[in-house]
Amino acid sequence: LPSILDTQNKTVHRAIMSSPESSFYECPICLATFQAPVMLACQHSFCWKCLKKYMESDGRMCPVCRERINGNSDITRNLLLEQLLSEKNKDSTSSVPPDRPNNFVRQTNESTKTDTIT
Q1: Per the confidence metrics, is the pTM higher than 0.85?
Q2: What residue spans carry the Polar residues bias annotation (predicted)?
Q3: Residue ranges in the chain modelled with pLDDT below 50
């Protein structure tokens, strides 16, 4: 059973990571990238601050599916989403090349007096 779950998690992870602009990373309340993501019993995720503010304004149902929220016991950290966000951030920063001189070479053709960048 664990190997099946691992395979499914890897498949889901690849699908999510292949679409980095996906709304999967967006809180449905603030529409920004999740900050300290939490999950309700209904499996919908939100930023902790967004959900807290929503609940303080008498929000007692999930903003997405309207399932009743039974207090803080229905709220857990979304560890999987935290990890995916962390990996997404690592991927986006590692794709930026370090500051260094460019790799282009300027060549001058002496017969035509033209420059070529390769």
Answers
A1: no
A2: 104-118
A3: 16-17, 100-104
